[in-house]
Amino acid sequence: MRLVSDRIFRVGLLVVCGLLLVGAVTGCTTTQETAELKQAQSKRILERRDRKQAKKQRSKSHDHGSNEQ
User: Rounded to whole angstroms, how far apart are CA atoms 42 and 44?
Assistant: First the structure.
C-alpha cells in the first residue's frame, strides 16, 4: 500500500509543480504585455503633450507678432 501512495504523491507533486511553472510563465508574459501597453500609453500621452505645447507656443508667438505691428 505504501508503494501506491508514494507514486500518487509523486504524480500529484509533479502536477502541482507543473501548474506552478505554467502559472509563473503566464504571469511573466502578462506582466511583460502590461509593461508594453503602459509604455505605449505613456508615449502617446507625451506626444499629445508635446503637440499641445507646440501649438500653444505657435499661438503665443503669433499673438506677440500681431501686437507689435
Answer: 5
